Amino acid sequence: MFEMERFLIRLARKTIRITCFEERSREYCKDFIVSDELPFDYDIVISKEDIQEETKNAEEQGAYASIELTAIYRKIVEELINDDIILFHCSAVRINGKGYLFAAPSGTGKSTHVKLLRKYLGESVVVYINDDKPLIHVTELESTVYGSPWNGKERKGEDTDAKIAGIAILQRAEKNSIDPLSKEDAFPHLIAQTYRPKDPIKLIKTLNMLDHMISKVPVYLLKVNMDLEAAATSYHGMVERGERSGTA
Does the model's pTM come out above 0.85? Predict the structure, then answer.
């Protein structure tokens, strides 16, 4: 009889048991694996039907992740919504102890912009949390971004977290600029980068969490080119501004 893989990981302070087919799924999650003896909050079991369903949507999958890995993360994220935790597509970093999110459609250049920030401020100052699909825990007082193994093609990120102090919606432009966005203007941009479950109850819960998050966290429209000056624009316009105003 075929023996399935089984292991426990810790994500956003939740312990999750995973049962799956591929040994490489365990390897992919190795930095987040915890002792098998720990009690777990969620039990994720991957079936052949899960693989078949993900295969139908294969064109949407990232090249760095297998169909099974995508199926695992989808099932995890669907469960974590129950604990006010959502998946947000962005590059998340920690600067001066606070979390900053750079969100944009794929191919816009958010990862490139973060690399410019690391060059401008130093790699010890700008620390990757997750360069693709971090998790965000939304509470009444604050929102916290957490790393996960699903961290992009270049695997940039680690098992760490930070309170979110600012979110930048990235757009390409010839001239660098950054301006605060109203909650109403920010919401459609952020919805587009948030995992939206098919279940209507969970979808409403997700949208409510997103709405609450941006009522507490400043959101900016960041127009940038690919010059180092772009990093200075985002740092002074978001990080320093937040520190001066006391929001960061």
Answer: yes
